[in-house]
Design brief:
Number of strands: 24
Largest sheet: 9 strands, antiparallel
Number of helices: 19
Helix content: 25-40%
Oligomer: single chain
Strand content: 15-25%
Shape: globular
Length: 716
């Protein structure tokens, strides 16, 4: 069974010794005891003390680290080593700076170097080369969301690109968005039936490799062939592939074999659990994946990961959708499962996994956050009955903007007992998205994303403005520490992220396209879902078109019933007028109305109300404004139907049974893809629900409490 466990109460905080005061006091004693020395000798001694402090020999008041020569002549950092030992034994140590320095210390004694890494990318943990932003794969679009008959503009690292589909070669291609002739944008061109991309300016055509195939302005065939053979006539193409429903693009241009080979030898950060997913969403091993979501967000790459990797904000920023801002916030520890490396990122688990992943006091689920540069964050929620793996891709498009792609895969164990997992809010919210059509998932996306966006869009500009005002030449990852105030361990993963970015940033934007935009105060532009998503999504454009058709149809039917009502009134009036013995009166007209007029009246108002509701719903495809200072009807509605709260739900019971009930999982739980991280496949790194790191941590805690070394964690 899965009962609750309590987090041990930390010991009272200890104050750090002020070593610099002791050093200063000792130096004063030395100076006072040397009364026989000349004044010049005193000045030299004082200069030596100050020089020693300035070089790091003593503790400075501004926080410099004390160092001394090691036994082999190297420099040993005493302060860092002392803080490392203290942080491991007591993470609640108080510090005087803005950033709790112990949060930058990683307890790697129990970590597993390659946990969470795809087998093809496990070597990145040991890779010693510096991280390169351009020699990476980035997902730039979702294949089934964009129209293959048109070219689509995208941006990557500040460079404008165009994505288009070669119907002859049956493949997607990515070029730099400029024609080699006069630099006109190829994204304004046309995809031709012969599998070429036509520039709309002078009708030059290019094949999937970027080679020019037609040049109408040439005087003759011989001249055309000569010019087409010139490398300057080629469009600048990039290595491209389609994997797990996404279109992937290499981070730098180049059609030579060196670039292609380098791209081919570099594995993309794909998710093995999503390999082999069908159009219905069914994945190997009886799992299911929901529809991909993709949209452009008006805040940058750093702001996205700083927010997404922060579990503490969820129940506050996403009030009523995933939790309650007044009841659910709680403290937790961040346990390092995979230490930070430049090329493989890091992985941390929450201990305990507080809301929205569990109910406070009942921690039968585990949650881990896995950051893998340059663009992947996996949120891995495990329960003994189920697992949800949410994969966020964040693509750095240009300063102040990023492209977000996300999907969730569910791996369900065979039904046992009373299916307690159905009462988890995290299970209910994610299961709802598994069965929703793509357009429904997309149109409801802003109800969640805009709750963050209204904060992050302004936050990163405030941080950047302060950074530029104080020290524009400093490293942004380093300067970030001097601007924020982070005293608790709940922000440890954010600190680890900026520690990684401090070593591997900044993002190498294209020169001339590296300026951070100003804060957008116009709500119609800030919350413009048409520009951020709908205009290039085939699912949403189709749903919007159908909504408009239904709106006009409802109006037409409602107007028809209204005309029928007028005809009935005219008929009753004519009957009244034709009666010679009765004086004209309203009561007489009403008495002659047919009984069907009341049903016509009800139908008229029903269809008009339907048209009004559909028109209001249609606006969600164009804009969705949000403010934390006001109650939101969409978010409140989610809470009302029970998806945002723990507890039973008949709707979820029906969905869960429809997807995974009966014999649908029988014999399938061992058919997962290579690299799958479920406990049935990866027994080296996972023990049932828990990772080995967390399982050992729970055993150690239980042994300390009960002195029973062999007590299994499941009995906690």
């Amino acid at each position: 069974s899965s009962s609750s466990f309590s987090v041990p109460t930390p010991p009272p905080p200890r104050r750090r010794r002020r070593d610099f005061r002791e050093d200063f006091a000792r130096s004063r004693k030395v100076q006072q005891s040397s009364s026989s020395s000349s004044s010049s000798q005193k000045n030299r001694a004082s200069s030596m003390v100050l020089s020693n402090v300035s070089k790091g020999g003593g503790r400075r008041q501004n926080g410099a680290r004390a160092v001394r020569r090691g036994p082999v002549g190297g420099r040993k950092n005493l302060g860092a080593e002392r803080r490392r030992r203290q942080a491991i034994s007591d993470p609640s140590i108080e510090t005087t700076g803005r950033l709790n320095e112990t949060l930058e210390v990683e307890d790697v004694a129990s970590a597993i170097p390659k946990i969470g890494m795809h087998p093809d990318r496990a070597h990145l943990v040991e890779k010693e080369d510096n991280f390169s932003w351009t020699k990476q794969w980035y997902p730039v679009a979702v294949a089934d969301m964009i129209d293959p008959l048109k070219p689509h503009p995208v941006t990557l690292l500040g460079t404008d690109l165009v994505v288009w589909y070669d119907s002859v070669g049956k493949k997607w291609n990515v070029f730099e968005d400029l024609c080699p002739h006069r630099l006109a944008p190829l994204s304004e061109g046309r995809v031709e039936p012969d599998g070429s991309l036509l520039c709309a300016y002078h009708a030059w055509r290019f094949d999937g490799d970027g080679k020019c195939t037609a040049m109408p302005q040439a005087s003759n065939q011989r001249e055309e062939e000569r010019i087409k053979g010139n490398p300057l006539s080629c469009a600048r193409s990039r290595p491209t592939m389609e994997e797990q429903g996404l279109i992937w693009c290499w981070g730098e241009s180049g059609s030579d074999e060196k670039v292609k080979t380098e791209a081919m030898m570099t594995p993309a950060p794909v998710i093995p659990e999503m390999k082999g997913v069908t159009k219905s969403g069914e994945a190997p091993g009886g799992a299911y994946r929901n529809h991909w979501q993709m949209r452009d967000l008006p805040y940058g790459w750093c702001a996205f990961f700083e927010n997404a990797i922060d579990p503490a904000h969820a129940v506050v920023s996403h009030h009523t959708l995933v939790g309650d801002r007044y009841k659910d916030p709680a403290g937790f520890a961040c346990v390092v499962e995979r230490p930070t490396t430049d090329n493989a990122g890091f992985r941390c688990a929450m201990d305990p996994a507080v809301p929205p992943f569990n109910t406070i006091g009942k921690y039968d689920g585990e949650a881990s956050y896995d950051f893998q540069p340059p663009c992947l964050l996996k949120i891995d929620w495990r329960h003994e009955e189920c697992r949800f793996l949410t994969s966020h891709y964040c693509v750095p498009t240009k300063p102040g903007w990023c492209r977000h792609l996300v999907a969730t895969v569910c791996q369900r164990n065979e039904f046992k007992g009373d299916n307690k997992v159905r009462q988890h809010r995290w299970f209910k919210l994610n299961l709802f998205t598994l069965t929703s059509p793509a357009w429904m998932t997309h149109v409801l996306g802003p109800t969640f994303l805009h709750q963050d966006m209204v904060l992050l869009h302004q936050q990163e500009k405030i941080v950047m403005k302060k950074h530029l005002e104080e020290s524009p030449d400093a490293n942004m990852g380093e300067k970030w520490k001097d601007q924020v105030f982070i005293p608790t361990g709940a922000d440890k993963m954010t600190v680890m992220f900026y520690k990684w970015f401090r070593r591997n940033g900044p993002i190498p934007w294209k020169p001339g396209n590296d300026k951070m935009p100003e804060i957008e105060r116009d709500e119609s532009k800030l919350f413009d879902t048409w520009e951020m998503h709908t205009k290039y999504c085939t699912h949403c454009k189709g749903a919007m078109r159908n909504t408009e058709i239904l709106t006009y149809a409802s109006l037409a039917v409602g107007f028809g019933y209204f005309l029928s009502m007028l005809a009935s009134v005219d008929y009753a009036t004519a009957l009244m007028a034709s009666s010679p013995n009765e004086e004209y009166s309203l009561q007489g007209v009403l008495s002659r109305l047919p009984s069907s007029i009341y049903s016509d009246m009800f139908s008229c108002f029903s269809f008009l109300a339907t048209a009004y509701s559909l028109d209001a719903f249609k606006t969600l495809f164009k804009t969705y404004k949000f403010s934390h200072s006001e109650d939101d009807i969409m978010a409140e509605g989610t809470a009302k139907i029970g998806l945002a709260n723990d507890g039973p739900s008949l709707y979820i019971d029906v969905l869960d049974t429809a997807l995974f009930g009966g014999d649908k999982l029988k014999g399938k739980l061992k058919e997962h893809s290579r690299g799958c991280e479920c406990s049935n496949c990866d027994t080296k790194n996972f023990e049932g629900v828990r990772s080995v790191v967390m399982a050992n941590r729970v055993r150690k805690r239980m042994a300390a409490e009960t002195n029973e070394e062999n007590k299994p964690w499941e009995r906690r």
